[in-house]
């Protein structure tokens, strides 16, 4: 079985990975831990690109790279702590869409994702990655609620 596990470095995604390991994992499974890296500079074309703007943009890029690097380091440590063998993949763009596309590319049999437990209003305006995956993925999606959110 090929399993895509969505991870963002939060306690919710850490719980989803642990739940997968404790309840579903088989040694024969191929596990892909996928992080959708969000760059604050994705809308950089709005800058006028004067030298000052260029410096601001470079600073934003550097901060994004550092933040994403910390998340990947956390993911590696979490995978090691749980004694799993997994490949870490970074994707970019709209998280729901990017994760569905990656699940197709790797031939995933299942997607595992944590649930942040946000309220109805926030989910309505900002969207929910787990909701998107449940409605758009073409394979089973396991949504793991953190015990503190139940």
UniProtKB/TrEMBL annotation:
Gene3D superfamilies: HUPs (3.40.50.620). Pfam families: Usp. Residues 3-145 form the UspA domain. InterPro entries: Rossmann-like_a/b/a_fold, Universal_stress_UspA, UspA. This is Stress response protein NhaX. The lineage of its organism: Eukaryota, Metazoa, Spiralia, Lophotrochozoa, Mollusca.
